[in-house]
Amino acid sequence: MTPQILQDRTKQFALRVMRLVDALPKSVKAKAIANQIVRSGTSVAANYRAACRARSRAEFIARIGVVEEEADETALWLELIVADRILSEKKVLPLLTEANELVAIMASSYISARAKTPAKSAIRNQQS
Question: Does domain 3-115 have CATH number 1.10.357.20?
Answer without folding.
Answer: no
